[in-house]
């Protein structure tokens, strides 16, 4: 390809008040695209990851001194459109009148009250999620956790690229469609460009725990905080064992050339290596998208790299209007937050139990989470009831229950003793229905009593 002309992108992004660090990060990805870099990582260049340290919950209490040096960052830019929600996903209800966002706030408030430490919370919002989030906080959050200047870290936006010209796509009828999110790897330029990194460091904050807002298993852990602080590592990734259901997800590996840990996504795997990629006995660990950062070492790394953490570019081919397959073909460039593991010498990974990875991606996930198989504590923490011994119920719902509002007609049985539940067609669970073991229902009303 010819030498890239980045000036039109810079002009477009500057006019839209995009932060300079985000422009620099996008330029890095764009130039990699124009060099025709594929981002592919061959299996022959990798070794599987061997034994990792394991996180064990001992029930110890938080160290207030460490908590005072900690910020919890929740990635909160996604909308719940795939589940029929026309607002930010963290406003889904976990219990009647209690949302994901409410529980996140309750966790921070509880820590502040119980330890006296001013643990911080930042919500990394997108342009799509900011208004909903701040509006909800204004009505429901306590003082100190409701104003944008106290809790909001804004994600950037980047231009979509015309696939034919490799220049900014033009879509004058809906100019908003000319932009896309840059992926959660935008965390690093957003922290710098917003001024939050310097502000946190000036306040004595040293440690950051980052996770998805829809993963209620990812809570601040006293054991992990102590372990990370004692490790002096610049970067820590929480990983858990892959199962057959995770074989298409990104996995952790070791680069043979230098022994560095790295993250390989399926988009970075050559077709000829897919069997090895999906071999969960070879590559046993996947990224939970929960990471820990040493903020002072992050700033040092940014200074060394000219202000931009080098992250592998991920290219996605779409159309400018995702609802119109005949609209202009575009390339959307993204970077992944976890991919930064290969940029930090001394970066580490730790194996955590599956209970710390409980994202809600579908209404089936939400249905299980709303059941009595899970307990919500006064401190806002969600966990499987002890009787389940860490095993969540496996729920499969018919496509007619794809959207959240359809769950109301389904009813809610007891899943405390359920191993798996399959629902096909029009099903209604009456009050008092109990699912035990494995059960499947199709086009029927399920009466009170034990089923399975």
UniProtKB/TrEMBL annotation:
Q: Which UniProt keywords apply?
A: Nucleotidyltransferase, Transferase
Q: Which Pfam families match?
A: UDPGP
InterPro entries per the UniProt record, alphabetical = Nucleotide-diphossugar_trans, UDPGP_fam, UDPGP_trans
Does Nucleotidyltransferase appear among the keywords?
A: yes
GO molecular function (one): UTP:glucose-1-phosphate uridylyltransferase activity
Q: Which residues bind substrate?
A: 184
Which annotated residues bind UTP?
Answer: 89, 155, 183, 214, 361
Name a single GO biological process: UDP-alpha-D-glucose metabolic process
**Top-level taxon in the UniProt lineage:** Bacteria
Q: Which family does it belong to?
A: Belongs to the UDPGP type 1 family.
* Protein's UniProt name: UTP--glucose-1-phosphate uridylyltransferase
Tell me what organism the protein belongs to: Haloferula rosea
Q: What lineage does the source organism belong to?
A: Bacteria, Pseudomonadati, Verrucomicrobiota, Verrucomicrobiia, Verrucomicrobiales
């Amino acid at each position: 390809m010819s030498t890239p002309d980045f000036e039109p992108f810079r002009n477009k992004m500057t006019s839209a008040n995009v932060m300079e660090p985000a422009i620099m990060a996008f330029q890095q990805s764009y130039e990699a695209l124009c060099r025709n870099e594929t981002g592919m990582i061959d299996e022959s260049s990798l070794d599987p990851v061997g034994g990792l340290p394991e996180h064990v919950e001992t029930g110890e209490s938080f160290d207030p001194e460490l908590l005072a040096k900690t910020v919890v960052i929740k990635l909160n830019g996604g909308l719940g459109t795939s589940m029929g929600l026309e607002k930010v996903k963290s406003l889904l209800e976990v219990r009647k009148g209690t949302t994901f966002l409410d529980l996140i706030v309750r966790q921070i408030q509880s820590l502040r009250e119980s330890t006296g430490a001013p643990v911080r919370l930042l919500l990394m919002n997108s342009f799509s999620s900011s208004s909903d989030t701040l509006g909800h906080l204004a009505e429901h959050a306590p003082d100190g956790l409701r104003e944008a200047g106290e809790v909001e870290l804004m994600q950037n936006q980047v231009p979509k690229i015309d696939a034919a010209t490799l220049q900014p796509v033009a879509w004058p009828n809906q100019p908003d469609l000319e932009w896309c999110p840059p992926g959660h790897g935008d965390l690093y330029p957003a922290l710098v460009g917003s001024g939050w990194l310097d502000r946190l460091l000036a306040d004595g904050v040293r440690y950051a725990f980052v996770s998805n807002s829809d993963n209620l298993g990812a809570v601040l852990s006293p054991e992990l905080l102590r372990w990370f602080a004692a490790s002096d590592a610049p970067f820590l990734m929480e990983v858990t064992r892959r199962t057959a259901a995770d074989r298409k997800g990104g996995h952790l590996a070791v680069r043979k050339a230098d022994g560095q840990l790295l993250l390989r996504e399926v988009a970075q795997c050559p077709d000829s290596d897919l069997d090895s990629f999906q071999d969960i006995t070879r590559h046993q660990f996947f990224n939970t998208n929960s990471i820990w950062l040493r903020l002072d070492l992050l700033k040092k790394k940014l200074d060394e790299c000219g202000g931009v953490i080098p992250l592998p570019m991920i290219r996605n081919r779409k159309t400018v209007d995702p609802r119109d397959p005949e609209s202009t073909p575009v390339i959307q460039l993204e970077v992944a937050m976890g991919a930064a593991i290969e940029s930090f010498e001394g970066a580490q990974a730790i194996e955590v139990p599956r209970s710390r990875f409980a994202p809600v991606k579908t209404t089936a996930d939400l249905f299980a989470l709303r059941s009595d198989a899970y307990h919500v504590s006064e401190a806002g923490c969600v966990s499987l009831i002890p009787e389940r011994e860490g095993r969540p119920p496996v729920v499969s719902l018919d496509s007619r229950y794809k959207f959240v509002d359809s769950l109301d007609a389904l009813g809610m049985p007891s899943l405390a003793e359920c191993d798996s539940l399959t629902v096909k067609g029009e099903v209604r669970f009456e009050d008092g229905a109990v699912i035990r073991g494995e059960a499947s229902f199709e086009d029927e009303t399920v009466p009170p009593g034990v089923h399975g």
